[in-house]
Amino acid sequence: MSTADPGIDPLLGLRAPQDPACDVFLTGTVFLDIIFTGLDSAPVRGTESWARGMGSSPGGVANMATALARLGLRTSLAAAFGDDHYGEYCWDALEQGEGIDLSMSRTVPGWHSPVTVSMAYEGERTMVSHGHEAPAPTASPVPGRTLPHCPPRARAAVASLVPGRSEPWVAGAALNGATVFADVGWDETGRWDLDALPDLEHCAAFLPNAEEAMRYTRTDCPRAAAHALAERVPLAVVTLGAEGAYAVERETGTAADVPAIEVEALDPTGAGDVFVAGFVTGTLAGWPLADRLAFAGLTAALSVQEFGGSLSAPGWAEVAGWWQQVRTTPGQDPAALERYAFLEELLPATDRPWPLRRAVPTIGFRS
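-> structure tokens emitted (367 positions)
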């Protein structure tokens, strides 16, 4: 079940009749994630390890889609789903459980779902994945459209850039007026060449982590890297892990540096996706840059306190519960409270105790 509160719409005061029905469009590979928790240490070769907990959920691009939907954004996902029980489960969990629009998605006959097994222990994770690339569609489920070259009109789109590869849908989304946010993975080629990311020219915001940013800009400081990236993209956001995040806006020259919230991290799976979803939400809502960074960091911090990828994405109820808890706990740093005071007018009143438990879906139960 989704943790999004149907009464919380972060864009409520900004919506107009001529606006696109979709807030955010994204595409990618959906995995079935099987997460083992409660492991005291890494599995030892030649032995059997027993986990004290397990959960199953859609993973891969579904982590980002779920995080966006739980923050109240109308999310459209174009993805291939396996023609098996895993694929059926992932489709139902995303469409029925999270309210994600899958009209641009398809089920591929005879293709099995990609699967990832994740083991969480000591604040880290170890993953084993298996899957095959989905065959190209022979026909579009939407008349007049091919996937994913012609995405629906949307306020924003999220792209994952790959060195040496161009995805036509990114330029199409930008041409249709979408604000394109992009992250990037590890460059397996070792070149770390920004010119090898051709779709970057269509992006309004680029959100690499510190190591990626420094390698791409040949700098030895993540903040210097952010300024260098801002020469290539309108908004550069560099995540700094336990130190927070730093952002530079090219047009105004505005820079923001927001520290991270200290939490006990149980599982970092999907935290980067949640950070991007929080930042997209704040950007579309028109918040100041520092508030966007703070909110993105907060949602990511809430996510690592739970196990799983899409399972751990917080909704507004979790954000409200956290704010209620910290502002009523004696001894808090006044400056830190002031940093998050912008939440006060956004959040609903809550009497739910903290910490809140997220629903943990799994395969096999029938209602």
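The radius of gyration is 20 Å.
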